[in-house]
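Q: Entry one of two.
A:
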Amino acid sequence: MAELATIARPYANAVFELAKRDNHLEQWARMLAVLNATTQNETVALLLDSPDMPASAKAYRLAEVCGDELDDRGKKFLQSLAEHDRLALIGEIREQFEALRAEEQKSLEVEVISAYPLSDSQGDALKQALNRKFDKEIAIESRVDQSLIGGAVIRAGDMVIDGSIRGKLQKLAENLEQL
């Protein structure tokens, strides 16, 4: 959703600059992760979507649920989002904050979804290749999806490399449909 990303960008940039200035990148990353996880809870999501409660009360309740995981800055951030009816952007703000943090720290989180578990040597080789390509420290998170049949899908930042058998079959089917 490009629109959500556009609306969330100034908030993510502001939080990132504040965190960077105060040397609190890790603390803000943790607070945003807690906020995001909390808003994913079904009960909390219903509360945030309720038209019967003012936004400031929603922010207060959300801060209450997060407890000690939020400091005063995090609570003020929530109130600021509430004042502008932007509580629904927490997930997008976190995502953009993490991208900015990774860029600052010259690291890149890469998700590898493969049909079979990666061996240590495969993981190391992939890490080295991506390190050369992006000139960043690479952190690989891998998971298995047997529906890929074979191969893997690699997500690095905004780039997706689909080397799965399923992906190749889908592309072949699309090409055949165009004939």
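Q: Entry two of two.
A:
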Amino acid sequence: MIIKKTRTIFFLILFLMAFAFQGFAQKTFTVAVVNPEKVFQNSNEGKKALFQLQEKRQKIQSDISSLDNQILSLETKLKTQRLTLTFEAAQQLTLDLDSMKTKHKRFEEDFTKEYQQLEFRLYNKFRSDVFPIIDSLAREKEFSLVLDLSSSGVLYFDTAFDITDEVVRRYNASKANKK
């Protein structure tokens, strides 16, 4: 009877130990970090988008500068010719100046909105193209977690965990294959 109890206790201990070790044999937790902003700036498609945004910004600035020059010209004309202009002509010039300032303000608002929409569209297209690549890479390398450096608040990380350059290479390759 003592042998049976000892044997039962022995098997019970073995069973509990096997169960306990199973809990310690969990999958390892691996982390990677990626900087989407850097991917955007360093990838071929991102560079094209940045160039497109820069061209748009320059066009807007050029158009606004042209309107500024027209406003300055009207202000100068009004100041220098105020004494020689008829009352009606001075009033008309003042109305033209106010109209030009309103046009400038609307133009600036419209183009700022248009620029922001273009920026939003380009960045969303980029995100929709890059996130599947990050997902695929994470599954392939069996990462448990991938942190976005641009918005995660990470203060320090070992650069060995940074997959940004690999994401850039794969993104460029995916776009080159489509062409």
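A: Comment on entry two: The longest strand covers residues 31-34. The chain has one domain: 2-178.
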